[in-house]
Write a structure and sequence with these properties.
Elements (H helix, E strand, L loop, with lengths): L1 H33 L4 H5 L9 H11 L2 H32 L5 H11 L4 H14 L6 H5 L6 H11 L4 H9 L4 H12 L1 H16 L3 H6 L8 H7 L8 H21 L1 H12 L1
Helix pairs in contact: 1-14, 3-14, 4-8, 4-11, 8-11, 8-15, 9-10, 11-15
Length: 272
């Protein structure tokens, strides 16, 4: 009886997971299939591969600067990811390792800052960046997001499981604080860095509101701005639009699947 009940439970679990997997994967399947069809077929709901992939590619090359927008997004996203991880990991390490009575108060203030919506700081940021002439620059794109309360909290939580004895032993051996951070802390916390890198890169890659404000020239246009611009006309070429969306999705998909194991390890570590 127990075996039959277990088999029923496992069968129901597999059916449920299969249904959830179908609804999760279907939008990606539809997106790829739509990239090979023309607008009329997409509007009619065609879900099979079409013969218009090369026609859509030709239309994309003639209509938009896909290569330039892709490079702009890739460059800014990589730079923002590297700088954010460097700054936030050092801050999270400092919050956990160094003893100070006021650090918990400062951490609470940082967490409270997460409740402030970006819309309320958007205008002051724009005026500040326009005065220092950082509009249409890579620095202007990445500077507001280099340090975030979420990433600092994420590294701080993961650092709680980091053995303090290793740091004390390294200090006895004569290592400087920077050497301990770079040579001891970073290698051990590699899964946390991978999880943070994925989250930060995806956030930077899909960022729309701030680039829309700070990137005012066509030369500095990013992928989200380019894709949004394809729907701004009187008629929308859905084949071209879905092809652009497919290209835009590829970097985040590749990053996640190549770093999936470390991402799970990093997220589980933050919960511990």
């Amino acid at each position: 009886m127990k075996m039959k009940k277990l088999n029923r439970v496992s069968t129901a679990s597999y059916i449920f997971l299969g249904v959830v997997c179908f609804f999760s994967v279907f939008p990606f399947y539809w997106m790829v299939m739509a990239a090979t069809n023309k607008s009329a077929d997409i509007i009619s709901g065609k879900l099979t591969p079409g013969l218009y992939l090369f026609s859509n590619i030709k239309s994309m090359l003639e209509t938009v600067s896909m290569g330039r927008a892709f490079w702009n997004s890739l460059r800014t996203s990589i730079l923002q990811t590297l700088l954010s991880i460097l700054v936030c990991s050092a801050a999270g390490y400092g919050f956990q390792v160094y003893r100070d009575k006021k650090k918990d108060l400062l951490m609470s203030i940082l967490l409270l800052s997460m409740m402030i919506p970006f819309a309320s700081t958007m205008i002051p940021l724009f005026r500040m960046f326009s005065k220092v002439k950082l509009l249409n620059t890579t620095v202007g794109f990445i500077l507001p997001s280099i340090s975030t309360a979420f990433l600092i909290f994420f590294f701080r939580q993961n650092s709680q499981s980091f053995p303090v004895e290793i740091i004390q032993a390294a200090r006895v051996d004569g290592l400087s604080e920077f050497q301990i951070y770079a040579g001891v802390y970073c290698p051990i916390m590699a899964p946390t860095f991978a999880a943070a890198a994925i989250v930060t890169f995806m956030s930077a890659w899909n960022n729309y509101m701030w680039p829309l404000i700070v990137m005012q020239s066509q030369k500095m246009q990013t992928m989200p701005l380019l894709v949004t611009g394809l729907t701004a006309g009187y008629t929308t070429d859905y084949g071209l639009l879905m092809l652009s969306v497919t290209i835009m999705t590829l970097p985040t998909v590749v990053l996640f699947f190549t770093q999936q194991k470390r991402f799970v390890e990093g997220v589980v570590g933050s919960v511990k």
